[in-house]
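Pair request: fold both.
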Amino acid sequence: MQTEFDLLYTKVLYLLNRFYPLRTITVTSRHPHCITPEIKAKLRRKNKLMRAGRVEEAAAVAKRIAIDITKCNKTRLNHVTSTSKKAVGTFGPQYESSQAERSTRAMYRDHSPNPQ
């Protein structure tokens, strides 16, 4: 029984890795705060679609990217008041601390079909 399960597990992993390979995305301190590995992967997908001439699909991906970035900005800026003095004070230290090098590597499975 165990050997049959191991064989099934091996075949499933093979198929998963064949059709949905792991990809590595690196995000550094030079990227804006809202650029996550998921958004960066979507940007790469949009660029591939645009180069392949699939403009309608690229526009749909661009809308999803815009929604994700809007969510990120909304949650980050929800505590900022309308007073510009407070807003400047809120963003000042963030930009100073962002100068420190940060690097994020993420592994993910690309579930979208490859552009042909």
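--- second member of the pair ---
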Amino acid sequence: MPNQTHRAPPRYKIPGFFSILLDNDWMRVRAEAKRQGAVLTYHRIADQDSRKNDQNIMLLTEFKNAAAYDAREKLFSSIRKQLPDNASAVIPQTIGSV
């Protein structure tokens, strides 16, 4: 009998949970950073592999300059502290890139 103690972890359905995480944090933080001028553009690109239950997600953020990139964690932390908990009040409900 094969050893079953080393099983791969279960596959999680990323679209629901991960999409909520992206909308509630990643997207709204970048929307505010864009409003402040540190971020020029940001994109969330998803590709569903029809042969599998895998979804590939690419997150891209274009910063104003190297200084804005270097200061990103401090800026994002500051933004997270200031934003309300209700993400729908902060970012428009759009699909694709912003």
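Observation on the second member. The two ends are 52 Å apart (CA to CA).
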